[in-house]
Design a protein that fits this description.
heterodimer, A: about 240 residues, alpha/beta, Rossmann fold, Alpha-Beta Plaits, 2 domains, 5-stranded parallel β-sheet, two-stranded antiparallel ribbon, 10 helices, about 40% helix, B: about 280 residues, Nuclear Transport Factor 2, Chain: A, 8-stranded mixed β-sheet, 3-stranded antiparallel β-sheet, about 35% helix, about 25% strand, binds iron/sulfur cluster
Chain lengths: ~240, ~280
């Protein structure tokens, strides 16, 4: 392969269970082959410089001024922002956090980062498998494809879970019984009953995996995102 | 590598990106004796299995009524047996997870519908879970699909209009614009338009006729008794050519007429999906 300039990637963790940073940590060797990686695991990071990619893990705590400021700063300085993992992209299990716990009882509202800044690609998964990030960056470089459209589309939906799958696809009569959602759910919250998935609400950690794997839902997301993009152009709305 | 090409599906590319389109036929006497048309997919699976390239095949098998279940074939005999009851009337999920998770499946070929090829490809390219069994799937074969049936209402209709019992239906094939229903005491041909209201609603929004996310897409040729094979990457193309080289199949490039017919079908499905999708947005 011809030597091309490696892009600079900032990996930045906002919090959460550490599952996502760990998943990324495991591909550092491969990642450094295609990019210059900057992360707190490799030394101090500079938020005042520019990056080609910012990979953000963890939810944004809306009560924490410092985190919100940092996130906004990263957005300004980075060409492409990737919300990596369920918490950063679609809410995930942290949505259930109600605050009141020690040691930071004042923190109650954890949101996907797309509620605060514009995100370019959102990757659900709790956590996504390590190989995911490499595939994604290669795909972004190539610049085209259904799945790329899909992960872009997810950035417009700060909430996606088994509940939405039920509402939008199954109860809407669009389910074809292909089984993708069942095969994708990490907690077995979905079960096939008479060729249609059914949700066990208590088991759903709102990771969103099922929604992007569902051929019907993914198609809806992409179409809706294109409509959003159009209307956004019309009103030139920017977060 | 499989599936690295950009995947686009629109009216201009209704059958996605591909390397080659062939028409093929099984040469294997074991398949010829089954009196099934084409049979190239079965022959390729036999080739892969007998040469030790894969250790198993996951296909659909007919269950009670019109339902399908995943069937794991590990020997040529089992592949042939599965081909005898090939079933693509509804996507099959029953037992699929267990089959994929089973420890004696390490390198398998999956035969399914375009929607299933889509999520398996996504699993392979973009694993969202550690436990995604993508590495086990060596080859994804997708069968052409114009839509699958809402089982109960279709069966009900068959019974009401033709006195056909679900147990008596052996197979259903789409031949040109007709639905060929093979049952215990013969064959019944009905117009596709007649069966259309009994398709699953979700299928009406599905734009994918051939299975653009598969390695190989296959379906009956609308113009001949051959199987059309669409290879979508180098590996898939090599497999098809090698299977021909080893005498499992007979192969030639698809005629312009066949290609046109498939493109036409693909376009029809894309348009249909646009129409229905705009209704549910
Ligand atoms: S149903 Fe399963 S896959 Fe879907 S959001 Fe809930 S936990 Fe995740
Ligand atoms: S993935 Fe979507 S279409 Fe497939 S079974 Fe689940 S809800 Fe139905
Ligand atoms: S029409 Fe599409 S969704 Fe329906 S079974 Fe065929 S491939 Fe699956």
């Amino acid at each position: 392969m011809a030597q091309e300039e490696k892009p600079d990637i900032l990996v930045y963790d906002l919090g959460g269970c550490e599952g996502c940073p760990l998943s990324i940590l495991r591909v550092y060797p491969q990642l450094s082959r295609i990019a210059n990686v900057y992360s707190r695991c490799l030394g101090p990071v500079d938020l005042n410089r520019e990056y080609d990619y910012a990979v953000i893990t963890g939810p944004i705590c809306l009560n924490s001024v410092e985190h919100v400021e940092n996130l906004k700063k990263i957005r300004k300085k980075s060409k492409i922002v990737i919300a990596y993992g369920s918490c950063a992209s679609v809410g995930g299990i942290i949505l259930y956090a109600r605050g009141g716990q020690e040691p930071r009882p004042e923190h109650r509202i954890y949101a996907p980062i797309s509620r605060v800044v514009k995100v370019d690609y959102s990757i659900p998964g709790c956590p996504p498998a390590p190989q995911m990030l490499i595939s994604l960056i290669n795909c972004i470089k190539r610049g085209k494809g259904y799945f790329l459209d899909l992960f872009r589309a997810v950035s417009y939906f700060p909430k996606l879970s088994g509940f939405d799958l039920m509402d939008e696809v199954v109860l809407n009569g669009l389910c074809v019984g292909c089984g993708a959602c069942i095969l994708s759910c990490p907690t077995n919250a979905l079960q096939m009953i008479e060729n249609r998935p059914d949700l066990i609400p208590e088991k759903c950690i709102r990771c969103g995996t099922c929604t992007v794997r569902c051929p019907r839902f993914s198609q809806l997301l992409i179409r809706r995102s294109k409509l959003f993009e159009k209307s956004r152009l019309l009103t030139s709305f920017e977060r | 590598m499989a599936g690295v090409q950009p995947i686009v599906l629109d009216v201009e590319h209704p059958i996605g990106t591909y390397v080659n389109i062939y028409e093929a036929r099984a040469l294997d006497p074991r398949i010829a004796s089954m009196r099934r048309k084409g049979g190239a997919v079965t022959a390729i699976l036999l080739y892969l299995l007998e040469k030790g390239i894969i250790d198993s095949v996951i296909v659909a098998r007919k269950k009670k009524g019109l339902k399908g279940e995943a069937f794991l074939a590990k020997t040529p005999e089992e592949v042939l047996q599965a081909a005898g009851s090939k079933w693509s009337i509804v996507p099959y999920t029953l037992g699929l997870k267990e089959k994929l998770l089973s420890p004696d499946v390490r390198k398998t070929a999956f035969v399914g519908l375009p929607c299933q090829a889509q999520f398996l490809r996504q699993m392979k390219m973009f694993p969202l879970m550690e436990s995604d069994f993508s590495r086990k799937i060596y080859l994804i074969i997708s069968l052409f699909c114009m839509g699958t049936f809402a089982v109960e209402s279709f069966l009900n209709y068959m019974h009401r209009s033709y006195r056909l019992q679900p147990e008596d239906i052996v197979n259903i094939e789409v031949v040109k614009d007709k639905l060929l229903i093979i049952h215990r005491s013969g064959e019944l041909e009905i117009d596709i338009s007649e069966a259309l209201p009994y398709l699953q609603h979700g299928c009406l929004t599905c734009p994918d006729y051939t299975g653009v996310f598969a390695d190989i897409s296959a379906g009956r040729s609308p113009e001949s008794d051959y199987t059309v094979l669409i290879t979508r990457n180098k590996l898939a193309d090599k497999i098809v050519k090698d299977a021909a080289g080893e005498g499992y199949i007979e192969l030639h490039e698809a005629s312009v007429k066949t290609m046109d017919a498939i493109l036409e079908k693909g376009r029809e499905k894309v348009f249909r999906s646009y129409k229905y999708l705009s209704a549910v947005l």
